[in-house]
């Protein structure tokens, strides 16, 4: 989870790529990444909810 100081909670390509990399690294260790939440002034975005992960 992190915030976007711009206020726009839309995930950037870097957010998506970094999350997928963390999922790939964590999986062999038995660690599950359930979601990546981005908070902005206008609300929040869930990568899982957006079906990006």
TrEMBL record:
This is DNA repair protein. One of its GO terms (molecular function) is metal ion binding. It comes from Bradyrhizobium hipponense. InterPro entries: MPN (IPR037518), RadC_JAB (IPR025657), UPF0758 (IPR001405), UPF0758_CS (IPR020891). PANTHER family: DNA REPAIR PROTEIN RADC (PTHR30471), UPF0758 PROTEIN YEES-RELATED (PTHR30471:SF3). GO terms for biological process: proteolysis. Residues 1-53 form the MPN domain. Pfam families: RadC. Keywords: Hydrolase, Metal-binding, Metalloprotease, Protease, Zinc.
């Amino acid at each position: 989870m992190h915030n976007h100081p711009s206020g726009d909670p839309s995930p950037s390509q870097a957010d998506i790529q970094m999350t997928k990399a963390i999922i790939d690294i964590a999986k062999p260790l038995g660690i599950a990444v359930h979601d990546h939440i981005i908070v902005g002034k206008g609300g929040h975005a869930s990568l899982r909810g957006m079906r990006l992960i």
